[in-house]
Amino acid sequence: MSRYWSSLVHRLTPYVPGEQPKLARLVKLNTNENPYPPSPRVVEAISEELRNGGELLRLYPDPAADRLKEAVAARFADFAITAQQVFVGNGSDEVLAHVFMALLKHELPILFPDITYSFYPVYCGLHDVAYATVPLDEDFAIRIDDYVAPNGGIIFPNPNAPTGCLLPLPAIASLLARHRQSVVVVDEAYVDFGGESAMALVSEHPNLLVVRTLSKAHSLAGLRVGYAVGQCALIEALDRVKNSFNSYPLDRLAIAGAVAAISDQAYLEATRQAVMRSREALCSDLRGLGFEVLPSAANFVFVRHRLHDAGELAAALRQRGVIVRHFKLPRIDQHLRITIGTDVQGELLVEALREILA
Ligand code: PMP
């Protein structure tokens, strides 16, 4: 590669997703996937879409994905959300990319926590978007008083990642009221595992956008579906960006599967309860092994051992076939983020840790 091209490539700092190992038989607790399969209705709906030798695949999907928007609106009917208030995309990462392009103003810095989902700084770095990080407090909580106006917008996950800490709804309402000139984006990737959704605040706050994914609570990371909910002006802005470069973000199978998943509330309830039960059991086992465990409202826990280096622990676990996430970043390089798996996976993790710590 010529010096010109290689310097161009090296200027770009990529987002590094969690490892997707090729080996079977690993206990994979590194990317916050759900350990349970999706609702059986998802497979039925996708099979139905493939009927008659897949003849429907000849045809473009609905560019507006109206069925999916209606399913999302029906799920949040209690908050009077309508289909016109929903934007959909190919995973919430793609939805977030649209949000950065359409709604976060680039003349002023966008604000987000210093410890958060790495997509945000990476996106800003790649696209030369100004941002400023706001330190979490000593308990890893988001301190809303430190978010100053004016700014180009505010974005954070709730619960936060990789900490699992929750910002209570009244704090979000207060942030929205203090920053009426900014869009406040609440990334609710993990909210179904014990969080409080900001969906209840959408009707009162024109500056709020709530972003969700089907990758976690609905066990559909492989289908790539995410969505955003907000008042119509924000959704129209997102649609304009979408229409300018891909009118068909979701394929037919993704739309059919996502509608089925969102409509099966009973299944969602059963799996999220199972994950939350396993989380409580794992937290108590980890505390028993000498780990400090941050209270988590997500499908992962963020832990640290007082006597053992986190990088070495991650490597020793890997040798025993258990993969967890270690971030080599300031302030959290002694922590591990561990996804909640099945109880059996949790037991294998604890057994491996017992052996390592002995
Ligand atoms: N937001 C947060 C906070 C996440 O951790 C993730 C998953 N890594 C995403 C969004 C993106 O999820 P997806 O693109 O699978 O919808």
Automatic annotation (TrEMBL):
It comes from Accumulibacter regalis. InterPro entries: Aminotransferase_I/II_large, HisP_aminotrans, HistidinolP_aminotransfase, PyrdxlP-dep_Trfase, PyrdxlP-dep_Trfase_major, PyrdxlP-dep_Trfase_small. Its EC number is 2.6.1.9. Residues 26-353 form the Aminotransferase class I/classII large domain. It is an enzyme of class 2 (transferase). GO terms for molecular function: histidinol-phosphate transaminase activity; pyridoxal phosphate binding. It catalyses: L-histidinol phosphate + 2-oxoglutarate = 3-(imidazol-4-yl)-2-oxopropyl phosphate + L-glutamate. Gene3D superfamilies: Aspartate Aminotransferase, domain 1, Type I PLP-dependent aspartate aminotransferase-like (Major domain). The gene is hisC. Its cofactor is pyridoxal 5'-phosphate. The modification N6-(pyridoxal phosphate)lysine is found at K216. Homodimer. Pathway: Amino-acid biosynthesis; L-histidine biosynthesis; L-histidine from 5-phospho-alpha-D-ribose 1-diphosphate: step 7/9. GO terms for biological process: L-histidine biosynthetic process. HAMAP family: HisC_aminotrans_2. Belongs to the class-II pyridoxal-phosphate-dependent aminotransferase family. Histidinol-phosphate aminotransferase subfamily. This is Histidinol-phosphate aminotransferase.
